[in-house]
Amino acid sequence: MNSKGYAVVDFETTGLNPARGDRAIEIGLVHVAPDGMLEDEHETLIRVHRDIGAQWIHHISAVELIHAPEFEGIARELRDLLAGRVFVAHNVAFDSKFLLSEYRRLGTDIPVNSHTMLCTMKLSRSLIGVGSLADCCREFGIDNEDAHSALSDAHATALLLGRLMDADPEWSGWRRRLDAAEEAGEHWPELTSFERREWLPRRSHVENNLQCMIGGASAIGADDATGFNPPLPKDFRLHVGDKIVLTGSMRQRRSDWETELESMGLEVRPSVTKQVRLVVAADPYSESTKARKARDYGIPIVAEHWLEQAMVNGIDY
Q1: How far is 306 from 45, CA to CA, in rounded Å?
Q2: Residues 132-142: tens digit of each pLDDT
Q3: What region holds the BRCT domain (predicted)?
Q4: In this structure, are 201 and 264 located in the same domain?
Q5: Is this prediction's pTM over 0.85?
Q6: Which of 3, 41, 60, 79 sits between 20 and 30 A of 296, alpha carbons compared?
């Protein structure tokens, strides 16, 4: 068979479990030839209509996702990038779970399974006795300065894949998976009903020119999101009895915020209604259910630091 090679993938996600509603918000993909040579790279942010989780880990802001394609918009192009290639990831059980979940959301199954996947984490443990990507990179002298960015992690994993090929070139699993992936390539759905969208890398990668973008999309900043949230009225102040809703993973624990706010006479509500005066979000550009409902009702959305300053200034009676 004329093998295409490998597609090394990394996802950044809102959480750990797609079965509980977590979503992929960034993908990095690197093509690797059957002999281990790197061929090309691709990346994009992915818009999701929910809170985006632990931003202190993936360093993606909600405002960056506003103009990013939804998964539906990248599904056809991603299919072309994956079909016929071995799906590789460092902890492939995690990344494949999100890939399969995203395609199932579109009502389709893809032939990514134990026969067509390869896990560099398991292989590294077997060959060199370490498993984490950081430890593997250290062992082989691979730079991964932008760790927890999908493309940087995928690039580091692709380099690791080449080192593992050199370490055990006679392993039968290489050819077995290449053949299985080539055969499975004929069973990928065409997905012609989905309209293609331009891929949008994270802003820092565009600014630093870390990769060639697909379609020439440009990154955005907060200025591009003007009018996205209802405006906060001039001289807005909180009053005793005001109803407030909190959303997202904040720096201060939710229970601590609730105790502090209630001690000052504010009412913390679990959901957004028209009686709510303010929504406080870990990221004010979040597309969580609460944030979207607040926009529908014209309720201002502020960041946690605004609330911190409001507490210092005091609550009106």
Answers
A1: 27
A2: 999 999 999 99
A3: 234-311
A4: no
A5: no
A6: 60
